[in-house]
Amino acid sequence: MPTTCWPSIRGLAMRLTKVDSCGAPIVGPKSTIESDGYVSAKVTLEYEDGESTNQKNAAGKLCVVDQAPAQLKNASVELAFCGVNPDLLVMTTGQDLVVDEAGNGVGVSIGDPTFDAFWALEMWSDVPGAACGAGARPFGYFLLPFFTAAKLGDFTIEEKLANFSVTATTKRGNGWGVGPYDVTLQPAVAPALPAPGPLLTALSADKHLHMQEVKVPPPTTLECAAKALAA
Question: What domain of life does the UniProt record list for this protein's source (predicted)?
């Protein structure tokens, strides 16, 4: 089959999902957030350079030249938000939710970092100029399946709009599998047409980043509050 090349522009939506210490999605209340309330998401891949070995012989000429391959240590993300999203900050940092007199989440209380907050991030982008094959519009899909607790970035209170951000780093050993969501079309089984379903191939545990073109639209029920992830 031919390979599809695709451009990416504009972040359309993101989804955060709570995962457990083994990187598996957690089924239950307040386990997922679908939102377009972010300004940018900067992803950086961190590599450990391989060791370089060079040895000269007695005549001063190189007799051994070797460069070990680099290894991917992790991926990091810096998420900048349009404002304060209490549920999102609690999910990513593991810090305490602040509630008002009615029990509504209105903020977050930041203290020492925690080590037991784990989450996954999915993002969708536009694919400009692409034709709709078989009536399905293509989108860019980006998955970082296993983050440790994020850190809240610096912000300034002044005349201008305050910008809030978090930074986080992935870890090895994700348990995402094919995921709990319908994100891509499944192979057609005649006479039915292709239908939405999970990833076609389960992520191996060593993956930090997965990206592909999909023909299933991003989430459309975009809310500030976290909601349940059904089994």
Answer: Bacteria
